[in-house]
Amino acid sequence: MNAAFRYLVWRSARNRVARQLRQLRQPRYLAALVLGLGYLWIVVLQQRPTSLASVGVEAGLVELLAALAVLGAVLWSWLFGAERRALGFTPAEVTFLFSGPVTRRELIGFKLLKTQLVILLNAILWTVVLSHDRAGLSTWLRAVSVWVLLTTLSLHRLSATFVRTSLREQGWHGLPHRAASLLVVTVVLAAAGWSIAEAAPAIAASWSRGIAEFLGALRDAAHGTVPRALLYPFALAVRPVTAGTPAEWLSAMGPALTVLALHYVWVIRWDAAFEEAAAEASLRRAAALTDPRTGRIAGRPVSRSTPQLLRLKPEGWPGGAIVWKNFLAAVRFRRVRGGAIALGLAGVLLAVLSFYGEGTLAELAGWFTLTWAGVVLVVGPQWVRNDLRNDLLMLDLLRAYPLRGSTVVGAEVMASASVLTALQLSLLLLTFLAFLGNETLEPGLAARGALLLGAVVCLPLLNFHNVLIQNGAALLFPAWVQLGPSRAGGVEALGQSMLLIIGSAVLLSAILLLPLAAGSVVFLALRPHLGLWSLIPAVPAAAGLLALEGAVTVRWLGRVFERTEPGAALAVN
Amino acid sequence: MIEVEALHKLYGDLPAVQGLSFRVEPGEVVGLVGPNGAGKTTTIRSIAGIIRPTRGSIRIAGHDLATDPVPAKMALAFVPDEPHLFEYLTVEEHLRFVGRLYQVPDVAQRIPVILEEMELAARGGALPGELSRGMKQKLAIACGLLHSPKAMLLDEPLTGLDPVGIRRMKATIVRRAEAGAAVILSSHLLHLVEEICTRVLILNHGRMLALGTVAEIVAGRADLAGRPLEDVFLALIGDTEGGD
């Protein structure tokens, strides 16, 4: 490893931490630190989840569940991984390193070294969580196990990103260089699909008979030849983490380290393949140039127009310009029209299917979309970041606009909240349609319709508050929050993400307390007279209070925005 | 009109600007010059409403920036030295965005005119990532000019422009001033300042060293009579540093 890289990573990390610690001279950062430590103490140390083994789940099953989780994470990185984050280099790194006398292999090594900072932090978090009820294994051994697992997963994600990116960049020309990788992935995906299809009926049937039956069915399904072979490398990777004694740990570490080493070789081997494929792609690009004056590549027009529906009118609320800008950023390059058509067709198809046979396929899709609506509600505010978390990097510009601080904050939050709401309502609508023909499901069709309408009222407000929490954190603690389009992500940053999600959920619960109490009082008071119809005054009462809380918070954050000075506050980012 | 009265700005204990007072009348172009760290950017950012002065007052077109910021900023255009553009808005969408912010009713008519003026007419559908550094700078300037501001703050506006672009930009600045805008132009290009500015404000260590036409500034220094602004500037700064 280049000594200059080690110096760069070490000094950058040291200076960053020192700078963040210096922020503690400001009372709000100090208060946040105290609150944060208290929160960690309660969430991680006092409320550690009870291990599965301690509630009677055998060690083999724990390993199986862990291997399944890792398999899921790996498949996710292949199907939905974010290239920009995994391969991201800062502009300064590009300027100094890409133009410097540095081999591509050294660059990959630098990237791996940088990732270690996140991995080490998250290894500590996971070690603390997993140390509960693990008397037979020391914390140090556990920490090493977690580090090996997270590093392996990080390397895997990086390789997956290389394959995906180079395939997209070089197309069929790069195929020979990554045929082996693609073959393995195709086999794994096929095996996973086949295993799921084989085991799904038995596992689904066991669900209604309780958790023990469900876990038993899962274990039986994993004993088949194909699933066992599929899960084998993942089991090797997680075995040190689930080991109960030092002897078990020692025997598990060898294979786990071998898996890690193989991944390292896989990543480093991209050096040659990357160079060769890049050369071929350059030739192809040169041949594809149709206009030597403009240098345009055939089939890739450089201009684009705004769809009529998204044209911004010059008159109206000035904050609407910011909402429009952020909304465009969220939907640009995503095939919104195609997505909307696909959504409509899927809805019609699900609705029709729900009336035929036993509606199993529609039902399965319904549970899937419902689960995703929940996932988007909880995790979505961390994914959709076209708001202050992005724009604070251009605080100079925002501050020069003729807008009040509260207008800027409200508009920035509104954009992300709108995107999330549209996504969730689409998923809920699909869920509703998937169960349209189901007459046995409780709650009944009318109640499900009422719940959907309730979601139309409540979700915008919930999302607004959820995004407001994230934006408030960015505004109040810009030196501690990752600004810009990217964020720490991937399996290696899962610990941090979980803590953030739990923290936001706690804050949101506190915000919801008063509106829910008010709504409940109205509901209970009117129920003897109106029955379920008392929901009609109760929901607006709760929603009104929630909106009032939002308005007060936006006003307060607007004043914070007006007092925030660009240079000092954002220097860390 | 831009009115600055007893402007002070401290960063912690470090004074960046100390007791600065001046006015820029409609039709005037005032050149803000000074060595690195003199307080030019702090002054411009304070007038743009980006940072809050520690003491003192700023009025734009009669509106106090501290108590009446929205109307004050409505009359203002700020063009920073580094063009800050939104990654996912095209050239034309940037202008539509600014049109809504500044409530420009005839934005649809103004966009083609200003794109033509900035030589960006053929790039209306391009994203910032597809523009050269100079084109980005032109777009940032176009965004500043779209709402016909009464006061303009230009921080190194010619950075990245080619010779033709520089000539057109100088003409644009002069034309806007002649149409009644009050312009402050911060630049290290002293020949540019000398060429298009009606007055010069020289800053050093956050304090005003001189304000006036070049002739007025050298009036008290017979040794500098008839010398270009660059010599005058170096002599004045040298005097200050020598006094330190």
Stretches of chain A where pLDDT is under 50 for at least 5 consecutive residues are 275-303
The mean pLDDT of chain B is: 89
Q: Count all strands of chain A and give the number.
A: 2
* Number of helices in the DSSP assignment of chain B: 9
| Uncertain regions spanning at least 5 consecutive residues of chain B | none
Q: Give the biggest beta sheet of chain B.
A: 6 strands, mixed
Count of structural domains of chain B: 2
Overall geometry of chain A: globular
User: Which class of secondary structure composition applies to the elements of chain B?
Assistant: alpha/beta
Largest sheet of chain A, in brief, is: 2 strands, antiparallel
* Order of helix and strand elements from N to C terminus of chain A: HHHHHHHHHHHHEEHHHHHHHHHH
User: What portion of residues of chain B is helical?
Assistant: 25-40%
Task: Give, in order, the helices and strands of chain B.
Answer: EEEHEEHEHHHEHEHEEHH
Largest interface: A-B, 38 and 43 residues
Q: What is the β-strand count of chain B?
A: 10
Q: Give the helix level of chain A as a range of percent.
A: over 70%
